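Private note to self, pasted from the team thread so I don't lose it. C-alpha cells:
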C-alpha cells in the first residue's frame, strides 16, 4: 500500500511512502503521519491513498507512525488547502500548518491529573488501628470519606500535609482509589459570555425574518451549494434567522460553521448562539484565541469525531473538521478582519464560500453593510439576496446630524475636537442620566493632507486615492501608481495657507470631553485596553450597568454590542477614513457610519447621531445620512468600474522589502519590466510605487499592483516567472491577493 504524503517541512512537495502491514487499517486521506525524510523524521499529511509518482519500489520508505485514529483533515479540506495554495500563492506547508492547529500537530493533549476518592470501606476497629499506627493515612482516609466527589490529589495532599508515600500505601491497600482525568474539560465551556448577560429567550420571527428563514431552509433541504447574502439593518434580528437555519441543520444531523470577525468583540452573538443551541442539545465549540493548547486539542477532535456539531469562531474556524458540513455562516461579512495579514494571506469570507461550495452546503453571508464584492455578486445573480429592512421592534433608525467642522466653533484648538453641538448634547445626556458613545477613527492616518478651511484633500488623478505625504522628499505621492507632486503651500481650491498634515491625537479627545462634562464618568476603550481581556469585559459590563456615562473608543466598540440606554453616538472624525490612501476608503466610511448609527437608540429611547466632518458633502457621508444603500452602491460601483478596481477586477499586490531602498527599487523595477514583457495575460500593472508606510523599522517598502480578471489563471504564470527571476538576497517579496488594506 502506497501513500502520497505532504511532509510539513520546507520541502513543499509530496512524496510517496509505503505503509507497514500493521498500520494499514489506520491510515486514511487526511491522516497525520510521521515519516522519515533525509535523516530526520517529520510530520506529514496523507493527501492520497495510492501514489502517482514513479518511484522505484526499493527506494520507498515506510511511514513510522499514524498519529491519530481520526484523520485531521477530510478530502474536502485537503482540496480547500490546495485551492488556497494556488489562489493565495502560498506554500503547501504554510497552508496546512494554518489549517491544522499547532496543538494537534504537536500532540498537545490536555494534561492528565490524578484524582483521589475513597476505596474500600474500612470497619471501625480497623480504622482505630490505623489511627494509632499511621495517623496521617487515617486522616487522609477520613477526609476522602467525607467528600461527595473525587478531588485532585495534589490539592488534597497539600491541604492535609500528607506525603505521597502515605497516600500510595492507602492506594495499595485498596482503601483509596487513584485515577487520572483530563485536566481541562472545557471544550464546551467558555469564559467569554460570562459577564455579558445573554438573552436566551425564544422569539417568534417577524414576517421578513420568516421569509429569509424559509429561503434558508429551502437551500438547506436542497442539499447543494447555495450562497446567500443576508442584508439586514442593525437590530433587524439577523442572529435569530441564523439560529433558525442552524437548528434546521442540527435537526438534519448536519454540522455548521459560524464565523465572526473576532470572538472577543462579539460576546453577545457568541453567547446567544451557545445558549440557544445548547438548549437544543447541540454541542458547540467556541474557537478563540484564549483557548489553551489542550483545549484546542479537545475541541478539534470533538468536531472531527462528530461529538460537537457546531464551531463558532474567527477566520481560522473555517478549517475546523466539522462533519457533514451543511451550513456556513459568515457574520459581519464586510469586516476586513477576515483577511489574514501574514502568509497565507487568505480572506476568511472567501475561503468560507469556497469551502461551502466544496461541501455542497448552504452559505449565508450576513451584514448590515455588506461589502461591495458581495453586493456585486448579488447583482450578477451569483448570490441570493435576503433583506431585513426594519428593526425588530419597529423602532426608527436614529436621527443623524452632520456637523460641518469647517464652520463649527471648536471647543479646543487643534483639528480634532469636539464641536459646540456635540458638546451641548453630551451635557444634555449626562443631565438626563442617559449614556453616550464617542467613536474615534482607528484608521486615522496622519500622513494625509487636509485644508481645514474648505475640506480639500489632494488625490491622485489616475487612481482616485488620497495622496500621502512623504517626509523623505517633502512630496505627496500616490502609493499605487507612483504619481507625485510637491506639497502645495496654499490650498489649490480656496487658497488658504492653513492646509497641512492631519494629525490624530486620540487621547486628547478623552481629556476634552472631561472638560466639557467634568462630573461624568468617562472611560476610554482602545487597543491597549483590548489586550487585557478581563478589563475589556469589565468595562463593557460596567457600561451596561450604567456605571459609566460616556464611552470613548475606536470603531471596534461598534461591533455587535447592544446597549439600550445609549441615546447619543458621536463620530468625532468621520472623514478620517476618507483620508486613508485606499480605494475602499469611501466604502469603509459609509459602512462605519451606518454601523455606528446602529448603536444609538436600541432601547426604548430614541437615538441621535452626531457626525463631525470636514467633508459634509462627500458621497459616502451623504448616502449614509439618508440610509440610501442603493444610491451609494450605484455611485461606488461606477467609480470602481471606471478605475478598474474590485469587484470588477482582482488586485494582487506585490510587496518588495529591504534595508537598502535603492536595491529594493531597482529590483522592483527590473521585475516590473520583465512582467510587462513576458507575461502573456492581459494584466494592468501599476507601480512600482512606495507603500504608504514607506519605511517600517529601517525596512523600505515598495509595491507593484496587478489588476487582473482571473487570479487562478494569471497568478501561476506570474509565479513561474518569479521562480526564474534573480532577486537580490536582501530583497524580500510577498504577494497579497485581494488585499484589504494598502499600507
Ligand atoms: P442584528 O444581528 O440584526 O443586529 P439581533 O439578531 O442582534 O439583530 O437582534 C436584535 C435584538 O432583537 C435581540 O435582542 C434579539 O433577541 C431581538 N429579536 C430578534 N428577532 C426578534 C423577534 N422576532 N421578536 C422579538 N425580538 C427579536
Ligand atoms: Zn481649502
Ligand atoms: Zn495613482
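Design output:
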Amino acid at each position: 500500500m502506497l501513500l502520497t504524503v505532504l511532509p510539513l517541512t520546507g520541502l513543499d512537495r509530496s512524496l510517496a511512502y509505503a505503509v507497514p502491514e500493521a498500520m494499514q487499517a489506520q491510515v486514511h486521506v487526511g491522516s497525520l503521519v510521521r515519516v522519515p525524510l533525509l535523516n530526520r523524521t517529520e510530520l506529514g499529511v496523507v493527501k492520497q491513498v495510492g501514489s502517482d509518482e514513479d518511484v522505484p519500489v526499493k527506494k520507498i520508505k515506510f511511514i513510522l507512525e499514524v498519529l491519530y485514529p481520526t484523520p485531521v483533515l477530510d478530502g474536502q479540506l485537503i482540496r480547500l488547502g490546495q485551492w488556497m495554495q494556488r489562489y493565495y500563492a502560498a506554500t503547501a506547508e504554510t497552508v496546512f500548518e494554518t489549517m491544522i492547529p499547532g496543538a494537534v500537530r504537536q500532540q498537545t493533549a490536555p494534561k492528565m491529573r490524578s484524582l483521589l476518592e475513597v476505596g474500600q470501606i474500612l470497619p471501625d476497629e480497623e480504622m482505630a488501628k490505623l489511627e494509632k499506627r499511621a495517623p496521617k493515612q487515617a486522616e487522609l482516609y477520613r477526609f476522602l470519606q467525607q467528600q461527595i466527589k473525587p478531588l485532585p490529589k495534589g490539592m488534597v495532599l497539600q491541604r492535609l500535609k500528607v506525603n505521597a508515600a502515605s497516600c500510595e500505601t492507602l492506594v495499595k491497600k485498596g482503601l483509596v482509589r487513584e485515577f487520572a482525568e483530563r485536566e481541562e474539560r472545557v471544550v464546551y465551556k467558555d469564559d467569554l459570555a460570562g459577564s455579558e448577560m445573554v438573552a436566551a429567550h425564544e422569539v417568534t420571527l417577524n414576517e421578513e425574518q420568516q421569509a429569509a428563514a424559509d429561503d434558508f431552509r429551502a437551500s438547506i433541504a436542497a442539499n447543494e451549494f447555495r450562497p446567500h447574502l443576508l442584508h439586514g439593518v442593525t437590530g433587524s434580528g439577523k442572529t435569530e434567522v441564523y439560529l433558525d437555519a442552524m437548528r434546521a441543520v442540527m435537526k438534519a444531523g448536519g454540522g455548521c460553521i459560524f464565523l465572526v470577525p473576532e470572538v472577543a468583540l462579539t460576546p453577545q452573538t457568541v453567547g446567544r448562539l451557545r445558549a440557544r443551541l445548547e438548549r437544543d442539545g447541540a454541542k458547540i465549540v467556541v474557537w478563540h484565541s484564549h483557548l489553551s493548547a489542550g483545549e484546542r486539542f479537545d475541541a478539534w477532535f470533538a468536531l472531527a469525531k462528530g461529538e460537537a456539531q457546531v464551531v463558532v469562531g474567527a477566520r481560522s474556524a473555517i478549517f475546523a473538521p466539522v462533519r457533514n458540513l451543511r451550513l456556513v455562516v459568515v457574520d459581519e461579512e464586510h469586516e476586513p478582519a477576515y483577511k489574514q495579514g501574514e502568509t497565507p494571506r487568505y480572506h476568511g469570507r472567501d475561503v468560507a464560500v469556497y469551502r461551502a461550495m466544496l461541501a455542497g452546503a448552504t452559505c449565508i453571508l450576513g451584514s448590515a453593510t455588506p461589502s461591495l464584492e458581495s453586493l456585486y455578486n448579488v447583482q450578477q445573480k451569483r448570490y441570493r439576496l435576503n433583506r431585513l429592512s426594519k428593526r425588530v421592534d419597529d423602532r426608527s433608525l436614529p436621527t443623524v446630524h452632520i456637523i460641518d467642522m469647517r464652520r463649527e466653533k471648536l471647543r479646543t484648538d487643534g483639528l480634532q475636537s469636539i464641536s459646540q453641538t456635540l458638546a451641548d448634547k453630551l451635557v444634555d445626556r449626562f443631565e438626563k442620566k442617559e449614556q453616550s458613545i464617542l467613536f474615534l477613527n482607528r484608521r486615522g492616518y496622519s500622513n494625509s493632507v487636509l485644508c481645514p478651511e474648505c475640506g480639500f484633500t489632494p488625490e491622485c488623478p489616475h487612481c482616485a486615492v488620497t495622496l500621502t505625504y512623504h517626509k523623505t522628499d517633502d512630496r505627496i505621492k500616490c502609493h499605487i501608481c507612483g504619481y507625485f507632486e510637491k506639497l502645495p503651500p496654499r490650498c489649490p481650491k480656496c487658497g488658504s495657507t492653513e492646509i497641512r498634515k492631519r494629525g490624530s491625537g486620540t487621547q486628547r479627545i478623552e481629556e476634552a470631553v472631561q472638560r466639557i462634562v467634568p462630573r461624568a464618568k468617562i472611560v476610554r476603550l482602545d487597543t491597549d485596553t483590548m489586550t487585557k481581556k478581563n478589563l475589556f469585559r469589565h468595562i463593557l459590563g460596567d457600561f451596561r450597568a450604567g456605571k459609566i456615562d460616556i464611552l470613548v473608543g475606536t470603531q471596534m466598540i461598534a461591533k455587535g454590542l447592544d446597549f439600550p440606554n445609549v441615546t447619543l453616538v458621536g463620530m468625532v472624525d468621520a472623514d478620517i477614513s476618507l483620508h486613508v490612501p485606499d480605494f475602499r476608503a469611501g466604502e469603509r466610511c459609509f459602512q462605519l457610519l451606518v454601523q455606528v448609527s446602529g448603536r444609538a437608540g436600541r432601547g426604548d429611547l430614541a437615538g441621535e447621531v452626531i457626525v463631525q466632518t470636514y467633508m459634509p458633502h462627500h458621497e459616502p457621508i451623504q448616502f449614509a445620512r439618508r440610509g440610501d444603500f442603493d444610491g451609494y452602491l450605484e455611485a461606488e460601483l461606477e467609480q470602481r468600474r471606471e478605475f478598474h478596481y474590485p469587484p470588477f477586477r482582482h488586485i494582487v499586490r506585490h510587496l518588495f522589502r529591504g534595508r537598502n531602498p535603492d536595491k529594493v527599487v531597482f529590483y522592483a523595477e527590473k521585475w516590473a519590466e520583465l512582467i510587462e514583457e513576458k507575461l502573456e495575460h492581459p494584466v494592468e500593472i501599476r507601480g512600482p510605487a512606495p507603500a504608504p508606510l514607506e519605511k517600517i523599522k529601517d525596512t523600505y517598502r515598495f509595491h507593484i499592483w496587478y489588476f487582473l480578471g482571473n487570479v487562478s489563471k494569471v497568478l501561476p504564470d506570474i509565479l513561474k516567472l518569479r521562480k526564474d527571476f534573480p532577486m537580490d538576497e536582501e530583497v524580500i517579496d510577498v504577494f497579497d491577493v485581494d488585499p484589504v488594506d494598502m499600507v
